[in-house]
């Protein structure tokens, strides 16, 4: 039996009908199904579950939290902000992601191109008219090409995983928080207070985030003059910032624009997280649609 639950208008003013079926799956009105468990039989983002991914993921966060310091992030942003490594189209770049598996992720061990298409296709089902959001889904993790030799072959800890501000105290809601104790900034009074080098409401644009695929892809999209709306750029830049969008930490650094854009990030996150599965998308079938979106919002070749 399926029960229809009428929901009030959600944050972005869209009526959402939820269907709760016997299998305890949540079905949004466009047909995307939010599963209760991941491919490994656990709830999503369970970093303590005894799964085959647990050790790899924890070791990943140990390295990530030790090495992502204020100095490191500044250096990487300057270096990669030059965008002088490669010229390539968005689609070519998607194909490069075929070889990589994300070591920070407890929910998926499929090649990353699958995840890009799974996310985009899930959004497309529920938001058929928001083509910018489909494309945002497709490219949100494209910055993971930093793992590729052509892009500097950075270690996983400098590319994937949740992100967090550097230059102020590391919030307790960060996963595996204890590993920050070995970060050089942890005991530095310049960087370890609530505000650190920032001030109340300064805006996320003025906050240095741990270096990785989010900020890199944001820089690439912006500098190559994408016509995506600001909510799309915000999603790309902060989708891994779980301490903020899941736990509400660091909100004292946000300004009014950030608060507006956060609404769309909440919508997006559902599809980014819960579309992770072993079900593969037929790449050749959906490729023409995504090529048309890329052409609409990006130049043919981008500087990376
Ligand atoms: O492990 C995942 C993965 O690296 C995602 O791409 C990132 O956006 C998430 O925040 C993280 O938890
Ligand atoms: Fe990501
Ligand atoms: Fe993702």
Automatic annotation (TrEMBL):
Compartment(s): Cytoplasm
Keywords, in A-Z order: Ascorbate biosynthesis, Cytoplasm, Iron, Metal-binding, Oxidoreductase
One GO cellular component term noted in the UniProt record for this chain: cytoplasm
Cofactor entry: Fe cation
Residues annotated for substrate binding in this entry: 45, 102-104, 144, 161-162, 239-240
SUPFAM superfamilies membership: HD-domain/PDEase-like (SSF109604)
Predominant subcellular localization, coarse grouping: cytoplasm
GO biological process: inositol catabolic process; L-ascorbic acid biosynthetic process
Leader peptide range in chain numbering: none
Cofactor note: Binds 2 iron ions per subunit.
Top-level class of the enzyme under EC nomenclature: oxidoreductase
Catalysed reaction, written as an equation: myo-inositol + O2 = D-glucuronate + H2O + H(+)
Pathway of action: Polyol metabolism; myo-inositol degradation into D-glucuronate; D-glucuronate from myo-inositol: step 1/1
GO MF, any single term: iron ion binding
Enzyme nomenclature, EC number: 1.13.99.1
Binding, Fe cation: 115, 140-141, 213, 239, 272
InterPro entries, per the entry: Inositol_oxygenase
Family the UniProt entry places it in: Belongs to the myo-inositol oxygenase family.
Protein name: Inositol oxygenase
Source organism: Dioscorea zingiberensis
Lineage of origin: Eukaryota, Viridiplantae, Streptophyta, Embryophyta, Tracheophyta
């Amino acid at each position: 039996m399926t029960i229809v639950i009428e929901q009030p208008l959600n944050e972005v003013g869209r009526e959402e009908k939820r269907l709760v079926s016997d299998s305890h799956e949540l079905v949004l009105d466009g047909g995307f199904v939010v599963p209760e468990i991941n491919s490994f039989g656990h709830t999503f983002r369970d970093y303590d579950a005894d799964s085959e991914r647990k050790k790899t993921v924890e070791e990943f966060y140990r390295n990530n939290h030790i090495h992502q310091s204020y100095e490191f992030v500044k250096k990487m942003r300057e270096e990669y902000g030059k965008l002088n490594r490669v010229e390539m189209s968005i689609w070519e770049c998607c194909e490069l992601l075929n070889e990589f598996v994300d070591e920070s992720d407890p929910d998926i061990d499929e090649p990353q191109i699958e995840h890009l298409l799974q996310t985009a296709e899930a959004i497309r089902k529920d938001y058929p008219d928001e083509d910018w959001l489909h494309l945002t889904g497709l490219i949100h993790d494209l910055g993971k090409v930093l793992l590729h030799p052509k892009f500097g072959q950075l270690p996983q800890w400098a590319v994937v995983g949740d992100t967090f501000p550097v230059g102020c105290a590391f919030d307790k809601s960060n996963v595996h928080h204890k590993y920050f104790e070995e970060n050089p900034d942890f005991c530095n009074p310049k960087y370890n207070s609530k505000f650190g080098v920032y001030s109340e409401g300064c805006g996320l644009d003025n906050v240095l985030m741990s270096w990785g695929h989010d900020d890199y892809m944001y820089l690439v999209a912006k500098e190559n003059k994408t016509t995506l709306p600001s909510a799309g750029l915000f999603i790309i830049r902060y989708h891994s910032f779980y301490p903020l969008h899941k736990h509400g930490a660091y909100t004292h650094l946000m300004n009014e624009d950030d608060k507006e854009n956060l609404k769309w990030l909440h919508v997006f996150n559902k599809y980014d997280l819960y579309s992770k599965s072993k079900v593969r998308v037929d790449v050749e079938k959906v490729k023409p649609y995504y090529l048309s979106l890329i052409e609409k919002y990006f130049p043919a070749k981008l500087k990376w």
